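Please fill in the sequence for the structure shown.

STRUCTURE ENCODING:
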């Protein structure tokens, strides 16, 4: 998606350790006009699919998923990152290793909000090593829900996540794929799509 690539080039900051900061328009301050366009694009890319709900993971996926969901007219469910007293009854859960924080945490979804046979679209901001998406896939498997596909804003194509998800036959759509980035020069190379 050219609009997103241009914005990443303009405002994205390449940090050491393969981290791309997009705090000024996606991860801290959010450019709603841009995210709206991303929502329209996901709707176009998954136009043929019947979708019952969107599943994401807190925190940075939530705002994006909510805007995207308006184009599909479905609810958003977000996986919570730790057991809280607010979540009652049984949960589906999975362990996820955080790329940005380097620690392992549990993600969980109440059994009330994801059901057998649900057609689920996964949405997240970044795809790096794939742990977050694999965790959501595991939750859907446990729930016997059907994953229709995964929509990602920024895939870092030089990390393994994209391959792992595609190898599983999941319909993965990434709006921008970064094939290389250099923290010294700030240069970013996008994959032609
Ligand atoms: P994965 O689980 O695929 O390794 O990493 C995906 C998760 O880590 C995303 O939910 C995102 O929040 C975070 N993440 C991974 N790489 C980056 C990055 O380069 N920049 C930012 N802002 N977040 C990232």
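FILLED IN BY: designer on duty
SEQUENCE:
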């Amino acid at each position: 998606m050219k609009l997103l690539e241009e914005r990443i080039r303009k405002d994205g900051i390449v940090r050491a350790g393969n981290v791309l900061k997009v705090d000024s328009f996606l991860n801290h301050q959010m450019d709603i006009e841009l995210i709206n366009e991303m929502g329209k694009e996901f709707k176009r890319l998954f136009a043929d699919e019947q979708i019952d709900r969107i599943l994401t993971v807190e925190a940075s996926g939530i705002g994006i998923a909510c805007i995207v969901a308006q184009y599909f007219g479905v609810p958003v469910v977000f996986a919570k990152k730790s057991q809280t007293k607010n979540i009652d009854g049984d949960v589906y859960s999975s362990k996820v290793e955080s790329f940005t924080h380097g620690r392992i945490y549990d993600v969980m979804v109440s059994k009330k909000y994801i059901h057998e046979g649900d057609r689920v679209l996964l949405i997240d901001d970044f795809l790096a090593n794939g742990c977050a998406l694999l965790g959501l896939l595991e939750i859907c498997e446990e729930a016997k829900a059907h994953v229709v596909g995964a929509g990602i804003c920024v895939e870092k194509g030089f990390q393994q996540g994209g391959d792992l998800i595609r190898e599983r036959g999941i319909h993965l759509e990434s709006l921008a794929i970064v094939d290389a980035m250099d923290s010294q020069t700030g240069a970013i190379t996008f994959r032609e799509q």
